[in-house]
Amino acid sequence: MEDFTALPDLASRAFGGGVVHANDEFFATADHLVLPSAPGHAPKTFDHKGQVYDGWETRRRRSPGHDFAIVRLGAPGVIHGVDVDTAFFTGNFPPYASVEAVALPGYPGPAELAEAEWTEILPRAELKGDSRNLFGVTDGRRYTHVRLTIYPDGGVARLRVHGEVVPDPALLPKIFDVAAAEYGGRVVDCSNVFYGHPQRMLMPGLAQNMGDGWETSRRRDDANDWVLVQLAAPARLRFADLDTSHFKGNAPGWATLTGLTADGDQVELLPRTALRPDTPHRFPLVKGPAVTHARLDIFPDGGMARLRLHGRADQDHLWARMRSCLEP
């Protein structure tokens, strides 16, 4: 099975994911489940309810039943696997968990979600404490929400829902950032990931610091570094944003952009162009045919905070992808 953890976390707060409802949050709120940061822990740190945990923790059950939290995916899509992370929960983790999913239009609230027909994508499974519990999913349908159920109670630090983003074409403009991870753009190959994975360049928002981008090791040869991005859909690209924010002594000196068509032809989009440190750049691109991938070459090495590729996407492709994952 492919390592699904390399795929985007559809539930992440970075995409706008959020907890819609939880039946119990006595010790720690369920909002922690979707935080993009790794869970942390400060031992012997207490508030009025006890030890402070960076996760979701329910009270001890004294009656039959179980606890649950419903998460709205920030990026709806096809789920390939879930990570029920119980980091730092040792004597208080749930021994079992299950996950269900549903696809609903609009922005349903707790009442509508309670009445929905949920599909079980992870049957009740055993969990280990203070561990990442990884479970593959082979459903193949597009979902908008997931429900994590723990048996009978306890604490979970993070819920990661890894998969392929499938946006609703009806909610997209004709021209948008077709490289954006939130719409399905993803890195499929690159030359170097020493300091940071290039997938970070495709994340929403501005980079927060130098660690929130792609940075290569220092080259000691005559070659250069590069990254290949598969676009959300074939598109005619018009503008590129090459953002070197926070990279001051380690920004690339120059960059080029090359498009790849469905037939494998190469199209020059941006000739070799000088870049400035710590600067958001925008460049108009050479007009050409629709491309499915874009390759960014940086010379000779360095760091890039964000890469945006704005273009007119193939609407037929987007709708076909959407229809292909509506049924099992």
Automatic annotation (TrEMBL):
Gene Ontology biological process terms in this record: allantoin catabolic process; purine nucleobase metabolic process
Pathway participation: Nitrogen metabolism; (S)-allantoin degradation; (S)-ureidoglycolate from allantoate (aminidohydrolase route): step 1/1
Pfam families: Allantoicase (PF03561)
Keyword Ribonucleoprotein: no
Name of the top EC class for this enzyme: hydrolase
UniProt entry keywords in alphabetical sequence: Hydrolase, Purine metabolism
Residues annotated as domain Allantoicase: 16-165, 184-313
The EC number(s) this enzyme carries: 3.5.3.4
KW Hydrolase (keyword) present: yes
Catalytic reaction equation(s): allantoate + H2O = (S)-ureidoglycolate + urea
GO molecular function: allantoicase activity
UniProt-listed InterPro entries: Allantoicase, Allantoicase_dom, Galactose-bd-like_sf
Family per record: Belongs to the allantoicase family.
Protein name: Probable allantoicase
Source species: Actinoplanes awajinensis subsp. mycoplanecinus
Gene expressing this chain: alc
